[in-house]
Write the structure tokens for this entry.
Amino acid sequence: VARIAEFMNDYRIVVTKSTVPMGTYQKVTRVMADKTEKHFDYVSNPEFLKEGAAVEDFMKPDRVIIGTTNPAVMEIMKQLYAPFMRKSSRIIMMDPASAEMTKYAANAMLAARISFMNEMSALCDKFGADIEMVRAGVGSDARIGNAFIFAGLGYGGSCFPKDIRALIHMGEQQNCPITIARAVQQANLTQQDRFARRILDYFGAGAARTTLALWGLAFKARTDDVRESPALYCAEKFLAAGMKIRAYDPEAMPAARVALDNRIETVKDSYDALDGADALVICTDWQEFRTPDFDRIAQKLHRPVIFDGRNLYDPAYVKKQGLEYHSIGRP
């Protein structure tokens, strides 16, 4: 921003789209003011783009947050986004500090919903309840809704973990403990560990002689991003126990091999991963994993057992196909 200020020859509006630490608008304004005498305005305009759906989210945003205190700048920004607001205006105006906080609060809220349902899934395991039925009952409440309440391996990627850590850090800096964010973070790690431990306990002393077929390496479907992927967290646990891994992911295999220092074998087809494997472990909810050939899975595996970290299948149906089936929070 200092370079921008140095080359400014007239009034400019400087817009930040990234998720930035609280107080960035003050820092940027101060740095630029020290480098130029030209007038400028700063706008905090955080993005809300999901990996795998960024273009769609940009073209059809749920909302556009514009953080500025200048009414004239508000009007200019409205005109900038007008082509994307033809059906209805979803622009929300606020001050820059509130705009910065909105992004963190939104991601933390979504992460909290995921972690809450994952903790409920653990409790369902203890009482013989079915988290999928619980999810349907909870999601039918209009005050709650159905989004981000699917139990699974937990969240990962470049946004939720980073933003949760940032909230915790900001709270520490301001002597304002963000206890819910800490609980969300811990619940997420516990869920991943719980799933990995379930598989390790299943094989027990034979873990070091076990080969796992792993379907999914990305932190979620429709991306090749393996940053803080629950799949890689679990893979590290399996490797540490001496297990071998044959993995398949439609997009993320190159990145995963690098992240895991080439300690896993990757294959070109999901069914190839089953060759020589003692169990199938599903870590990412790719569409192509949703309707597999269960007969083929049973024939290829040394032991016909599936550990499903994304609750992709109907337990009763899978068991009828002659497969032992373990999922998240379901009897």
Remarks:
- The first strand starts at residue 12 and ends at 16.
- The radius of gyration is 23 Å.
- Strands lie at 12-16, 40-44, 64-67, 91-94, 211-215, 244-248, 265-266, 279-282, 305-308, 324-326.
